[in-house]
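Reopening this one. Same input as before:
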Amino acid sequence: MATLVSQTFIANRERLTTIDQRLLTTNYYLAVHYGRDVMPMPSSNREAGLLRFGVFEVDLTAGELRKNGARIRLQEQPFQVLTALLQNAGQVVTRDELREKIWPADTFVDFDHSLNTAVNKIRESLGDSASSPRFVETLARRGYRFIAPVDSVATATTASAAAQDLAHDLAYDKGTRAGAPAPHGLDPVTSSADEALHAELHVPIPRRGLVRALFALIQVMYLIFYVSGLAHLHAVDRIATSFLPGWRALVIVGAVLVTGAVGIPLRFYLLSAVAFDFRKLGGTFGRLFPFVLALDQLWAIAPFLLLPQIGVGLAFAATAALLYVPFSERTLVRLAYREG
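Same output, byte for byte:
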């Protein structure tokens, strides 16, 4: 009997020791390192200590900017300006507001030069540019606006994972001692927050250069359609007559002639707009979209003009793909440009 009690005491002591170690580990992850000292992190900071946009994240507590987890060196004033913009993402932060927040009245510096230098350093760190901004947009004589979506991420993820791990071990120990398998629902999960999503489309934000290039390629494709259709108008007439004799064939030929003549300047306009990064293309394309949709849907049947060469099956497949293209154009514009 004494031996059984002794063994039970030793087993409980070892189990308590393991629990204590995990609790110490949890407390360790709830600390922020400042040099060689360790300062406990307040609970309010743990709830919203990270601001994430794209592949970047800003740790407000540690005062760090990171890209894919790697720290990027950014001085104090540029970091404060970036923080102010992130905390007001999508809204204009005026130069006067930045002066009051970061440059106190008793600070004797060239404010305009200091602010411009800070914004330039932010753009350099983010790989951004003033002419084609993905993050920091300049509003002349007013201020700045952070245009990318920003997500607030809890910094207590590690502590939560440690707590889940502890609960899992306790449940596993209890289940195995009772002869039951470990519960699957308590498996510790190590995950990271999703990258920043587009506010309206709910998809990861791609590089604007890639989006603009894809949009331009679509315009080039339609230009090839129009020019080819007009250059082979007699062949179009011959093919249309073989399927739709009489006046119906003339309607097809007339539609190709009119829509091709109208579509060519339209595609050149859209190509020049995206090439020169016309900032109001989002609103302009939104107003043009009903006309573009009708035009593109009409030209979606263009593969049937090649029916003798490609066959019915491939013509149907190409037409089905072309029917979706105008909607993909609208999505690309919304990804690259703000509406309105």
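So the earlier flakiness isn't reproducible anymore. For the record, The first helix runs from residue 2 to 29.
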